[in-house]
Amino acid sequence: MQQTEEEKTSDLEVSHKFIYSITLACGLSSMQFGFALTASGGVYPDLAYLFNFDKKDVDSMLAMLSVCCIGGLALGAAIGGKIIENNRRAPIIIFNWIAMIGCMISIIENFTIVCIGRFIFGFSTGVLIIAAPKILEETVPDYYL
């Protein structure tokens, strides 16, 4: 006697620990998106002082800091689908590490290096925004959603 599709799926055992860990990783990835959009707002005056911006250039230089992160985010989201085409789990782990590296680079007190670090962080966040929902969709059983 053959089992129906419903009986086959009911025989599968769900690893709650795995589901929780994947959900946590994806949740952290999504939090990075918000951080990428709003991270520098409160520290702009400090950055202007740290980098000794001219009074006439302050707005354009601070806008450049924002654009680096948002530009990386847009690029990462644009090509994130290609990156996660064959594998979902490894890119989430790798790009979380890359995001941390981007944050560490941004600590260096050089305007160009800070822009590069913010671009790296934004790019990895863009990839994670594409990868996280896809891995959740493929990993978590329908009756848990």
Draw up the topology in text.
Elements: H1 5-11, H2 16-38, H3 44-50, H4 58-83, H5 89-105, H6 111-139
Helix pairs in contact: 2-5, 2-6, 4-6, 5-6
Estimated radius of gyration: 20 Å
Main β-sheet: number of strands, strand sense, barrel status? none
Q: Can you tell me the CATH architecture?
A: Up-down Bundle
Q: DSSP strand (E) fraction?
A: under 5%
Structural class: mainly alpha
- Rounded to the nearest angstrom, the distance between the terminal CA atoms is 31 Å
Number of domains: 1
Any idea what the shape is? elongated
Order of helices and strands: HHHHHH
| pLDDT averaged over residues | 78
- DSSP strand tally: 0
Count of DSSP H/I helices: 6
Give the proportion of residues in helices. over 70%
Per the CATH scheme, the topology name is: Growth Hormone, Chain: A
What attributes characterize this protein structure?
145 residues; mainly alpha; 6 helices; elongated
Structural account:
- This protein is an all-alpha fold.
- It has one domain (17-140): Growth Hormone, Chain: A (Up-down Bundle).
- The protein is built from six helices and no strands.
- The chain has helices at 5-11, 16-38, 44-50, 58-83, 89-105, 111-139.
- It starts with a helix and ends in a 6-residue tail after the last helix.
- The relative contact order is 0.18.
